[in-house]
Amino acid sequence: MNIDRYYSKIRLQKGRYAIVVAFLLVVLTIVVFWSTASKDQPVDEEKEAQTVSLDIKGPVLPESNPVSISIPAINLETTFVSPLGLEESGEVEVPDSYEKVGWYKYGPTPGEAGPAVVLGHVDSVDGPAIFWSLGQLSQGDDIYIVREDGKAAIFEVVSLERTEQSDFPTQDVYGDIDHAGLRLITCSGTYEKDKLRYTHSLIVYAKLKDN
Question: What is the DSSP letter of 68?
Fold first, then answer.
């Protein structure tokens, strides 16, 4: 046997193996890179949300900010303060007036598809505030909201709920729904002076009527 030819053949095979291994390593590196890159990409939540469409039922109105609200059953009539945003804690802001209400600006406007949220105080150091009598509402009572476009969105009370603030039903209040809804929210229960807040929340759920 020709020793030189034998070792030459071995060196050739090793060279081929090295080329194959190097190629596989390059392919593996590319796969890992793209896999990691795709995981690191931020999720476009808005785009994802658009892929989930609800079958909207009942009447709806185009977007328009609320101007005033009236509830004949409890002799309530008032205007809106500036739209409400979020506190640094993540909680929704409350109106800076005890005689007016506020609308949560990151939700639908009253009459649009989805849950429009309106907040008001129940009382102050001087006595009853705008939503003092909110708990007297009954199923079927009407709520009128006049909007900037001049249209009146008329809602019908569906139900009332009193819940502990520590167990607030966030999904029921702010989550997606298949109609144009309204939530009126105020404080309820016992006022805890050490925490400077009430123990419960009162939530009125309503639905837009055919005008």
Answer: E
